[in-house]
# Entry
Amino acid sequence: MGILSEEDFRKLTLYIKNKFGIHLGREKKTLVEGRLHKVLLSLGIDNANDYYQYLLQDKTGQADKILANAITTNHTFFMRESQHFEYFSEEVLPYFSEKLSDNDLRTWCAACSTGEEAYTLAMIIQDFFSLQKQSWDTKLLATDLSTSALNDARLGIYNDESIDMLPKRWRKTYFKQINENNFQVKNSLKNEIIFRQFNLNNPQFLFKKKFHIIFCRNVMIYFDRVTRKELVNKFYQWLEPGGYLFIGHSEVIERGDFSFQYVMPAVYRKGL
# Structure
C-alpha cells in the first residue's frame, strides 16, 4: 500500500470512528498509513480502496478484529497514576466493604489493555479483604477492544523492569519467575479477573448487574466530544448509586455534560 489518498484516509477513519468511537485526525495520517500497511501486507490486499471494500463486505467480524488490533495503542504500566490506587484502597474499598450486605463487589476495568491495571486492582482487593476474601465475590471484569492486548493480559507475562515498581511482597506473592528476565502472574490472581473483548462504542451495554467501580483511564482522549459524552452517560447508567468512575488525569468530563459528583482529579461519583 502506498500513501493513503485524502479520500481513502477520510473513508477509513470515518469507518474506524463509527465502529470503535476512535477519532483519528489529519495529524494521525502517517500513523494510520504505517499501521494499515502491515495489515494489507498480511491480508495480501494491494490498495486502500480494496481494503475498505473488504471491511464493508466481511460478515465474520474478523476484519474488524484485525483493524482494532492495528489501530489501538496499548501503552500502560503497573501503578500508573498511583493516587487513584491509593484512593481506591483507602476510601473506596472501605466504603463498599461496610455498605454491601451481599458481599458482592463489582468492578469493571473498561480498557484493560495488556492487563497491568486490572492486576493492580486485583492485588489491592486481595490485600484489603485478606482473610475475609473467602466470604466475598470480588472478581473483576476487564475488557478491551484489542484481542491481541487481551491475549497478553491473559498470559500475564511481564519483564522484571515492568514489575519493579510493585511492592516486594506483591512480587513474591502474586508472580512466579519463568526465566531470567520475565515473571508471570500466578493463577490464584488470574482467577480473580474475567477478561473479555468489548467495544465501548456499542450503542448499548448489556450486563447482568450494575457496577460499584469503573476504571476507564486514558481511553477517552481518543474520542471526540460527542462520543465521550455518550460513553460517560453509559457509565453513569451502569454504576450503582454511590459508585465511582476513574478516568485518566489528562481527561476531563465537562461539568455541563454529566450528573456525576466531582471527588478529586479524574475521580467522579454517582449520587446516592
